[in-house]
Structure formats: C-alpha cells, structure tokens
Amino acid sequence: MIRILPLTGLLLVSACDETRAGVAPSPRATIQDPGSRPTSQPTEPTKFAGFRRLNEDDAVFETAIVRYANDDGAHVSLIASVHIADATHYDELNKEFEKYDALLYELVAPDSYRPKKGEQRKADNPLSYLQLAMKKGLELEFQLGSIDYTPDNFVHADLTPSGFQDAMADRGETLMSIIFDMIARQGKFAQEQRDDPDAPKPAKIDMVKAFRNNEGRHALRLMVGEQLMMLEGMAAGAGGDDDDGTVLLEGRNDRALEVLAQQLAAGKREIGIYYGAAHMPDMEAKLIRDFGFHKVSERTLVAWDITKRKDGEKRR
Prior knowledge:
The chain is α/β, with parallel strands linked by helices. The protein has one domain. Helix content is 41%, strand content 18%. Mean pLDDT is 77; it is low at 1-40.
C-alpha cells in the first residue's frame, strides 16, 4: 500500500494555521438527536468528525455540529472543521454561519486580520506547490479560501502570533519541540495500530489498477479520507501525554473560551465556535464543566463525498 502519511501531514499542518453490500445510503446531512432530556455530561464522548464507509466503493468524511444550552437560555454550537474539504461543504457552512449572533473562529493571526474568500494561493515554494497539487488532484478546497470571514458576526477567537509565542515560552515549548512531538505521536500511533489486532486497518487499494480504470482520483480520496482525522489531530497537537496539554491545542482552546465568556457577558444568546475537529473534545469538556452547558442535539455534515466516479466525471 502506498504510504501517504508524511505528505498529507505536511499539507494539513500548513493548512491548519495560515501564519503557518446493497444500495448506499445518501451521504447528505443527517440529524441525530441524543434525546430530549438534557444531561450534564454526554453519555459518551462526542465524535466530532470521522470517516464512514457506505459500501466497498463509497465513503464519506463527516463533521459534526453539536448544540449545547445553559440554564439561562443561551446556546453554543461547536462546529467542527477540517481544513481541506469539498467546495460544497464550505458553501453549506457559509449559510450555516448566518444564523449565529456571534461566530467564533480559529486562526493564529492578528485580531484585525480577515482571510479573503476566493484568494488563490501562490505556488512560490515547494510546500505550497505540493499543497496546490494535492488540492487539484483530490478536487478539494482549502478552508481559508472558501469560508467568508467578512460578516460582522465573525469574531476572532484565537491567539495572535505574539500571544502564541508568549504562551509557548511560558510552557517551555518551541515550534521545533511541537513538530518533533507531532512526529513522535505519528510513530506511536502507527505502532499501536500495528500491535492492536482489533484496530481498523486501512483498505488495500490497487493504485495501478485504479489509474488504469480511470479511477485514480477516487482511490486517492479514499486513502487520504481514511487517515484524515488522525492527521487533523496531529496537526492540532492532540494526543500528547502532558496533562497540561499544548499551546497548539489546549492553549488556543482556552483563548477561544475566554472570547466565549466575553460574548455571553455581552448578551449574545446564539453562539457558534468554528474550530478544528481535533480541538472539540477538550472544548466540549470545558464547556460542560466550566460553563454549565449541557448537550442538546447534534447533526452531521458531509465534508468529503467520496462516492465512486470516473476521473473528470462531475459529482451527481
């Protein structure tokens, strides 16, 4: 099987922060109601994103929108993101974001900076050339070029570059230590997968046959889609052994929740937090424990529609 982890990992790390059988069921959005009686804690951890096979040939990668309420009648939705997805996924999110009084978003950047929707990346270095080639090859779009960050309800809820540097210094972290930690986690995860007989194994795909049959793009999307959640987690700094976490994940989450507290104090009643899926388990736990919210509903969106089609064939 072709190894694509290092290549795709580079793509997702960079995309994360710009400063840096039978008939298959429809893959469209579904609604899952966990029940009408609220609980102070989820009965099990929420799955904020994941790859799901529909049959031998087709699959989807889905993300969740999970809604929480408090006793004062305020609602917060955790909206899980992946940093590269189908264009239709970002179109759906742009419409979704219109409903919130405040939409808190992630991006290590100055507070005044807003990414420009539709802005094209320049292939002016080997990494950006690789990113653009994979984007084109997989027929995907980058989040920062597809989401409209200009509406008035958008609120920056992340560290600034200087704040990020200061937070790393306080924790004794450096960019190199974070990168090496990510590499170590990748190796640890791979070893655990090899040692665990019950762990799901990536499907073996005959790439030569796929390209001969004009299905190479679909085969690549299947392979990358299966590993996407792990790669997003590594890019976000998830899975470390330190109880205090890392600036890359927990430190940025804490900043987002500071902004949430400010928005609640300002009287906002319907708030969305749009952050990477790997950030969400920690975010959910703190929202429940520290803010007194309880989970009321969740629904899923299709981020990658990996239904089989010939290379060049338009999605139905």
